[in-house]
Design goal:
The protein contains 11 helices and 6 strands. By secondary structure, the chain is an alpha+beta fold. The protein has 2 domains: 181 residues, no CATH class; 121 residues, 2-Layer Sandwich (Alpha-Beta Plaits), CATH 3.30.70.
């Protein structure tokens, strides 16, 4: 028994060290050592079953009108309690197994059996067993066990609690890391907020006046044949009309990224109207390829460039023509 006490003391020391350990390697070493101790203690119990285990249960105080618990029942109870507490926690199935045994042996009149019966019935009354209620049943089992087993079983429970807390903490940390990575992945690599350059040239101000509004989606399209800058980036509308360029100081940084095909999204934040020509202010973002962001644009999705401004009257006439055609078809189908 001195050997058992020594092992229990070491197990308690390991539990305390485990809760304070920071490194994963140290915790793994402590877990392995605790497992070795647990297996050793269990072998000692199996090889040298203690007679006092039975007598400890039989000799507890009981009502005078009741007979004492039989030796076979005492052995059964000790073995059952040892079995269900093997891993330091209780499952619903193990609690139900213990409950059935207690009900079958309740007529014996043992205070220990009556105590376990009362605790278990309260726990299972609502048909749902919480983690805290499992601990209550486990502690009740500890109280009916012989003294030499009680410390051993309690040690298992405390270590199981420590491991469960560690598991919950690791899961929480993993979820936080996952959320952090998702947020990082969804964040743009580049964000540029700029006034479109070159609006006053080549009739682009007419395009802005007639075809650009606050909030409109626009596109950054590389102009690789531009004779003035190798970094030239057009700002193009959904119709494919060029309204100007990204200023060179931004283009120098963003052009190489666009050349690699990274996805983008851009919109007109506002249009400045205080000058001779309206100047769109654009916010553009460049993202990772696997960014969890909707409606990102790849280079292949950018509208083809249109050189001429479409006549507004022609567009209106086309819309009217389509409308009249639709009405005519509807009349025929009536």
């Amino acid at each position: 028994m001195d050997s058992l006490r020594t092992l229990l003391r070491e197990a308690e020391a390991i539990r305390k060290k485990y809760s304070e350990a920071q490194e994963g390697g140290e915790k793994e070493r402590l877990r392995e050592r605790y497992k070795q101790i647990d297996e050793t203690i269990h072998r000692l119990q199996a090889v040298s079953p203690s007679v006092t285990s039975v007598h400890s249960i039989k000799s507890n105080k009981k009502p005078r009108s009741e007979e004492g618990i039989s030796e076979s029942a005492a052995v059964d109870l000790v073995q059952l309690c040892e079995t269900v507490t093997q891993d330091g926690s209780l499952s619903d199935e193990e609690i139900e197994q213990l409950r059935r045994w207690v009900i079958d042996h309740r007529s014996i009149g043992s205070p220990q059996i009556a105590f376990l019966h009362d605790v278990i019935e309260v726990v299972v009354a609502d048909g749902k067993i919480t983690a805290e209620e499992r601990k209550q049943v486990y502690k009740a089992i500890e109280q009916v066990l012989p003294v030499e087993l009680r410390k051993y079983v309690a040690q298992r429970r405390r270590m199981a609690d420590a491991l469960e807390k560690e598991r919950v903490r690791e899961e929480r940390d993993a979820e936080r890391e996952k959320a952090r990575l998702a947020k990082e992945l969804g964040s743009p690599l580049y964000v540029i907020d700029f006034m479109v350059a070159g609006v006053r040239y080549e009739g682009r101000e007419r395009v802005v006046r007639h075809y650009v509004r606050d909030g409109d989606c626009v596109y950054l399209a590389r102009d690789r044949k531009n004779k003035f800058s190798p970094n030239a980036i057009e700002v193009r509308t959904q119709l494919g009309l060029c309204i100007g360029y990204v200023p060179e100081e931004y283009a120098e940084e963003v052009a190489p990224v666009l050349d690699l095909g990274y996805p983008q999204r851009a919109f007109v934040k506002k249009i400045l109207t205080g000058a001779k020509v309206p100047i769109p202010v654009v916010v553009a973002e460049i993202f990772n390829f696997n960014a969890p962001v909707d409606n990102l644009i790849l280079e292949k999705d950018i509208p083809a460039k249109i050189a001429r401004i479409p006549k507004r009257g022609g567009c209106s006439s086309f819309v009217l023509l389509v409308t009249f055609a639709a009405l005519a078809v509807w009349q025929l189908l009536r």
